[in-house]
Amino acid sequence: MLNAAHPGEAKASWQIAHQALEAHAKTRAQLDFEEGALLLAARRSNVHGHFGYGSFTEYVERLLGYAPRVTHDKLRVAEALQRLPETARGLRRGTLKYSHARELTRVATPKTEGIWLESASGLTVREVEKLVSGRRPGSLPDSPVEPTQQRHVLRFEVSGETLASFRDAMAMLQREAGEHLDDDALLLLLARHVLGGPVDDGRASYQVALEVCEGCQRARQVADGELIDVSPTVTAMADCDAQRLPDAHVGASPPHSPTRATQQVPPAVRRAVLRRDRHRCRVPGCTHARFVDIHHVRSQADGGDHRQENLVTLCGAHHRAVHEGTLLVTEDERQERVFQHADGTPYGGAPSSLSSWGHRQAFQALRGLGFGEGEVRRALAEARRELVTEAPVDQLLRHCLERLTARVCQRAS
Question: What residue ranges in 71-161 does DSSP mark as E strands?
């Protein structure tokens, strides 16, 4: 027999509880909206300064008990809601959950928020997180996912001893790097320490398995039996210094790939390069000397070979920066290594944040169009010589595209 109330009868306990929770959920969403607006107003009016607190996050932590990261996230959402009227209205009326608004504000714009709200309707917060992950502001729910933008959350509950040891390990990695590394870079370095680098200097540092489609160049890393999409940057890093495994073959015809694993850089050459560079990253100021990679100054796709003169030792963080377009490694007329920021400023100097950001965006956009790293870097170098110092990204792209497409047409003729 169902425990349900009939018309004219008292409501069942489960109905009362459900209706109370429904009302609470609506009130909570409204309170979340109000709290965000209050936090934003308090920060803008410098409330914490009037009480002698060192920062706004300290003020909020003492008043509301929020950790700094929670405060930053609530402020981000509150600022975004000022530009997203439909999302703000849903939260203010209690028809939209805060957890949904938190994720949607990462990607929605005034032009796209209606589409995002419709796509997220009826989804759980996990499903909304998955829908948003890997997409930029302004993109749509059906836009292709960019592995470079996709983020995964790691959560652990540990003892005080483990927490202290973890923080010591992170601090040591920061000191070895000689510069600030974000959470992603630090955890990657820590993982590579645990996975174990090569005991033989002739073997590459990469001890992970990557599967790369020959047709579309989509790359996925094998992780505990699962395939996880990784960015083209990871593929480019592995192309420099990795061990190539035979293709996994399915079918009746014999495989065409070699049956043995081969090193990208011959072991003897790799050992010689590491000895020359003293087993350390060559970027000025970097002190990393473990789990380093060998990088081709002139890529193999652009005709570079495995001669020692074309190879340089880089740590994982700086190797990634090269293939992301934020660090330049070239040679001068004396064939000495030259390290520069994306805008051409000598490494360690004072680069222009606007110009560096523009060059990185242009680099990644042109690589996404299929142009090789070498030709993109040459086109950007020409642009730096011919355009104003802080040329807008669209002007930088047009300048490079004109030259790159002209060269493609010239080669085809």
Answer: none
Where are the CATH 1.10.10 domain residues in the chain?
A: 25-132
Instruction: Provide CATH code, domain 25-132.
Output: 1.10.10
Q: Which amino acid makes up residue 240? A: C
What is the rounded CA–CA span in Å between residue 349 and residue 339?
11
pLDDT (tens digit, 0 to 9) for every residue of the chain, 413 residues total? 344 445 555 678 888 998 899 999 999 999 999 999 999 999 999 998 888 888 888 899 999 999 888 999 999 999 999 999 999 999 999 999 999 999 999 999 999 999 999 999 888 888 898 898 878 888 899 887 766 566 677 788 877 777 777 787 887 777 766 556 677 777 877 776 666 555 555 555 555 667 777 666 677 776 656 677 777 777 777 777 666 665 554 444 454 545 555 667 888 888 899 999 988 888 887 877 777 888 988 887 778 888 888 899 998 888 888 988 888 998 887 878 899 988 888 887 778 777 888 898 899 888 888 888 888 999 999 988 888 777 888 888 999 999 888 888 887 77
CB distance 341 to 328 below 8 Å: yes
pTM above 0.70, yes or no: no
Residue whose token pair is 């490694």: 329
